Amino acid sequence: MRLNKIILHGFKSFADKTEFSFEDSITGIVGPNGCGKSNVVDAVKWVLGEQSKKSLRSSQMADVIFSGSSKRKASGMAEVVMIFGDVDGEGSELQITRRLYRDGDSTYLMNGKTCRLKDIREQFMDTGVGVSAYSIIEQGQIGQLLSASKKERRMIFEEAAGISKFKAHKKEAQRKLEKTEERMLRVADIYNEVQKQLRSVKLQAGKARNYVEYKERLDKLRMQYYLAEYKRLEGRKAQTETELAGVKESCAEVFRELSRLEALQSELQNSLREKEHTISSKDGEIIAVKGRIEQTSQRADFLMNRLDELSKRKTDASKKISELDNQKTMLEAEVYRCENELSDVASQAQSKQDQLSELQELLNEAELDVSSINSRIEDQKTNALDAVRKTTQIKNEIQNSQNRAENLRIEKERLSKSVSSQQAQLESSQQDKKQKQKELEEVKSRLEELSGRLEANKDMIARLNEEISEKVNHAASEKQEKSALEREYRLLNELEKSNEGVGKSVSRLLDEVEKSPENYSYICGLASKIFESDVKHSVAVEAGLGEMVNWLIVEDCESFVKDWKPLADKSGRLGAIENGQVPAESASQSRHRRLSEFVRCSEKFSGLKERLFSSFIVAEDIDNALQLRSGLKEGEQIVTLSGEIVGAGGRVKFGRGSGNLGIISRKSRMNELNTKIEDVQKSISEIEAGIDENNSRHKELSETASQIGSEIEQANSDRYKAQSSMQLVDQAIENIQRDLPESQRELEGIDEKIREAEKAKEENEASLKEIEQQTSSSDSLLEELRNQSEEKQQYKNELNSQVTNLRINIGQDTVKRNALKQELSGLKGRIESVKLNIKSVRSDIEGGDEQIESTTQSVLNAESDLSELYSRKENLADEASELRKNASELFEKLSETEKDLKEKKESNAEGENRLHKLDLDLSETKIKIEDLIQKAADELETDITTQQQDQQFEESEVNWDEIKQEISELKAKIFRLGNVNVDAIDQQDELEKREAFLSEQIDDLTESKNKLSELINRINVESREKFQDTFEKVRENFKEIFRKLFGGGKADIHLDDEDEPDILECGIEIIAQPPGKGAKAISLLSGGEKTMTAIALLFAIFKTKPSPFCFLDEVDAALDEANNERFNMIVQEFQKDSQFIIVTHAKRTMSIADKLFGVTMQQQGVSKRITVKFDSEDTDAA
Description:
Blueprint: E1 2-9, E2 18-21, E3 26-30, H1 38-47, E4 77-85, E5 94-101, E6 106-110, E7 113-115, H2 117-124, E8 136-138, H3 139-147, H4 154-161, H5 164-497, H6 504-515, E9 523-526, H7 527-530, H8 535-545, E10 552-554, H9 557-571, E11 576-578, H10 606-613, E12 616-619, H11 622-628, E13 637-640, E14 645-647, E15 652-653, H12 663-940, H13 944-950, H14 960-977, H15 984-1046, E16 1050-1056, E17 1067-1073, H16 1087-1104, E18 1109-1113, H17 1121-1134, E19 1139-1143, H18 1147-1151, E20 1155-1163, E21 1166-1173, E22 1179-1181
């Protein structure tokens, strides 16, 4: 592999695209301080993936982008390209690119394709090429190599040994091993949790299997019972339908007779209505005639008044015609006057227009003369401006010469002061070096103290993490328990909301009450909802209530029966208890506790509670109850916690009854669950509060650790700054010694430059006098032309004034003429308007005569109509009297018919009542059948109508009492099972499969862990062998090269295995003994000796495993001429195996280079490359 080319564009001071091409030889990069030489080395580190801003001598990564100068804008992107040749030994080429934009976006490319930094690092791994490898050696690294800790020196040896890739693979394997172990812990936790769940689910599954067995037997017995009940109800339905058909036939005969009478009644009623309608019509006509008589009388009066008004209006119109004739005569006189004035104004306007044309011609000639003179004036002004520009230019050159001379004098004074300043800086730098050494020792002491504090803090954090983990697991367990309780509560709540266990008739009643509560205020609610108990006694309370558990508590039984008996007749039985009607009997004193003590309700129902429950004595079980029965009094009973009832006279009742039990138990269980959920939530809150407290403590410790880490980082930074400062002091001394002769040479050449500036000033002053003479004659001619222009302009202004005045007069005449025309038009319009008014008034007079004649005729017609209307009124009164007589006869016939109809309706009502009763019986039977079918569908999920056809059996063969007893026992068994998780059977199978899967996962992870451990061990063995072999070779090479560089002496390196016996972790100790001196610690060597020792070690490593190329950045800065010569000799020895690119100021080092790149700053802030080849006379500027 060989480095062919580096291309920089926008990187630091290289604003323009700059290319450095390298050959298989030694290449030098030279230039003055600050020109950007080391930026080339920074570019190589940057493109290879350097992430440290300090290493790139920047405060932030964006600083590597060209930031602009006084004459150049800043770049938007920095790009560096490295091109390698013969990568695989067959001539192939590799191109590495890195780009950075100002918005922070960064890109790596390999052969033009986007890639990761990891890909680039892997490409150069174990080749010696890299940011921290030995292919880039800087002046600061020389000192750091010797001052670094023993373990820090290992990195460069590992790169040479080629175990970097092994270490990377080992690190990856260790990371995978840690993840595998973490996953094993997680899987083990899950496995343990699954086993715990499986143990719990197995119990639930056994319970579920018993439930399934009982449920299947219960469903079978229910099916037999429901089929028999269905058959009985179907028979009753058929019998009722037959009886209903006979009653319907009898009712039909009565109905036909009833229809005939109703038809006759309807006919008579219609006739009577027609007569009454006719009478009403006649009465209406009489009223209408009376109204017309009144209207006609009023109209006749109105017409007489109208006739008087028309005569008056005719007189007024004659007077108005006379007034309009006078107004017309006056307007015609005004029109004549306006026409005469208009003729005079038109004659004067034509005369003024002719005069305006003559003045306009004179004005045009004057404007041409003024324009010509102004053009000559502008030409003179242009010439004058040219002269002014030349004068200004010469004056500027004179001023520049003065400024240049003054600046040279200032520069001379500055250079004199600079020499004195450099000498003072030299003394100050030596004092700074001593101070920095003292600060370095203090920083090292502070670092040791901070490291101890950091370790103690980490131990506390680890213990706190364990405590937090335990509390988190406890909280998770509590939340799981809470979730199970909430699931059970939701299930019971759904049953409560849907009124599960409440009969259909009761449900319908409650629905109606909910829709209209104001109509049923006497209903208090269900007994099972009003009375409550704890879970332990809830079964006993339900047993004590018996069938009343589904009854309603009401304030008024009579209203209840009146409103709800029809519903009970149709839908099923309803029960009610009246609150407060009968006082409770006081229970006799007993040492046994009464059931009423365990029942809760509002104060309103306390009397009812005593009445219902105080007669029951509570016993633990049936055996205890049987022992207590001998002491029972009349009306007392014993109820057990399981619901059995023992009464006086040997009466015993088992089971929980049929159908509607469990409502109070459910409600009690919900209350208990609610309390438990609150307790668990309180426990969770306390645990989470503890976790929050631990997290706060953890945060405080983490912040302390972070603060200590920051202090350690700051201390390391201070140590690095102190070391860098000492290096900078040495560099400053060298720079002063180099820059001083140059300053003296510049000082000698300044006087000659001052004389040249003064000579240029004298020549420019002579040119200035000549131009000023030419400017004077030009000013005289310009003044004469301006006077002529003013005279012509004045004449032109006079003509303009005359033209303007004349135009104003013409405009005034025009305005006057238009006004006269407008006035004339208005007068003519008014005359026409008067004529129209005269015509209109005459037309009104003619119309008024016609209206007077018409109104007179209308008065005569109205008097004739009044006579006719009075005659019509008398005829209508006679006709109405005859109609009323006929209507009286029809009413008598209708009364007889209605009497017969009433008798038939009574007979028909008796038949309908019988028919209605049979209908109700039939409907009730059908409802019971539907309820039975629905109940079978709900409970058994089957249609018993189809089962009835499929299953035939003899009812006489079945003992239904035994079946009912077995059904009760099965219900009791199912109830005792409590809440059953039927899904537990499937959950058990699923958990067993998951347990097997997790077991396999644990085995796989264990196997993977073993394989990774074996891989790490194998990498360690191979790495130890490679490192040991490389170390021995470097050791021999170090001894040999040290003797060459020092001309004798001794040096050695050995592994420091006192603290760390593992060869892969132990440090490296360096021993050096220059010729003629005793063995010294590295820190006691002089600056030159340290540099030569470090160079010897680096080249020993380089000889063991050469890298394709090597950048040496001013590593020879601290060497004197003799040591520099030895350094050059070593470099020349290695050039056959590697390319060397050397950044240097030393002339001896430049002399061994086959090719030199010069870096200059011809423009401030912008670096430029110059190439020189020693075997060619051509020099090209790039």
